[in-house]
C-alpha cells in the first residue's frame, strides 16, 4: 500500500538552516512552501507573515495544504534583545503549535539548540538525559528552552506529533554569523590571539547535516513505537521487561565509526598486521597481511557491550519509560535529539582551518606570528572589565564573558540516540564542510557582497 507523501511548510525557510532544508526537500521531489518575513528565493510558494500571529500561520497552513511543519525560524543568537527572542521563539512557537492543532496538521519538527542545556559548566559526551538548567546562559537559550518545552508538551494533542532537534555550532554555506565573525578577525589581523589552552573539545555541525536530520525526523515522526508505552499495559512492570524485537533492531548492533574527516585507520592485531622487515616470514604470513589489508566496510561481528551508565542501556530505558509512561524513549515523537558532526575537535582548530583556507584567497595578507595565548581566567577578567567599560560608553566589547565561557568550555554531545532512532549519519565531514563554506564565501566576495581592504 503506497503511503501519502507529506506537504511541507518550512517556517523560516529564507534563513540559514531553513534554506538548506528547502533545497534538500526539493532535491528529493517533495512539495514544499516557505513561511517567513522576507522572501530571498523564488523557487517555492512563499507566505509572508508574523509567526507570533496564529491566524497568519493558520492561513498559510490552509492555503499550502501542509501536513508537516518544519519550524526553523529564530533571531540570530548574538542580538541583545530579550523581548524579540521571546516574541519569536516562545510566542511564535506557541502560535505555530496552536495553528497546527487548529488545522489538523499531523507533524511538527522544531529546530532547538544544544545551547539549551549549557550553563557554563563542561559538557562531556552529553546525552539527552541532562535537563536544561534553571538559569540559562543568555536570553537566546532561555527562549529556545521554553520553545522546546512547548513543542514537546504539545506532542499528542489532537493527533499532533512533535520532535525537537538540538544542533550544535552550525556552520556552512550561507552562514552569516560564524563565517562573518571569523572573517572579521582575519581581516583585522587578529588570528594569532587565543583565549584558553585549546584543550577543550567542541562540537561543530555542518548545516547540510542538520538539514538532513530534519528530513529524517519528519519522515519517521509517525513511526509506531518499538514497544508499547507503559500507559497501555494493564499494570506497570516492577522490573525492566525484555526488549521487544523492534527495540533490539534499534539497539543491538554496532554502529560504524564517524570518520568523514580523519578517515579509516587500521590497528594491527595478532591476527592482522603488516609483517615489517623479517628474515624468515611466519608460516601464516600471507593470511596475516591479507587480513590486515582487507579493510572492513561494516562493523558486523564486533563485540557490543553496554554498561548501566550507558544512556541506552536497559536500566536507563526502563527508567525513562517509568518517568514518561505515555511514550517510548526509542520513538521519534515527543523526543529531543542532539545533532552534531560526531567529530568534536579542539575549539580553535576549526577557526584556524577557516583562516588557512582564506589564505588562498588573500596570499600574503597574514604574516606568521606566534600565538598570544590568554588563560581563560585572564580572558574572563578582561571581558568583565571590557563589558563594564562598554556599558559606560554604550558599545558592546569584542570580548564578552559569554564568548570566553563559550570558547573555553568542553561542549560535545552523544549522538547515538539520533543515529539509532532517526537513522542519522553525518553526510559531510568538518574539513569538507569548512571548504564548502569558504568556497561560498569566495563567490560572495567575488560578487562584491563583502567589502574588504585587500
TrEMBL record:
Keywords: Membrane, Oxidoreductase, Transmembrane, Transmembrane helix. GO terms for biological process: steroid biosynthetic process. Coiled coil: none annotated. GO terms for molecular function: oxidoreductase activity, acting on the CH-OH group of donors, NAD or NADP as acceptor. InterPro entries: 3Beta_OHSteriod_DH/Estase, Lipid_A_modif_metabolic_enz, NAD(P)-bd_dom_sf. The chain crosses the membrane at residues 371-392. Pfam families: 3Beta_HSD. The keyword Protein transport does not apply. The keyword Transmembrane applies. Residues 9-227 form the 3-beta hydroxysteroid dehydrogenase/isomerase domain. Belongs to the 3-beta-HSD family. This is 3-beta hydroxysteroid dehydrogenase/isomerase domain-containing protein.
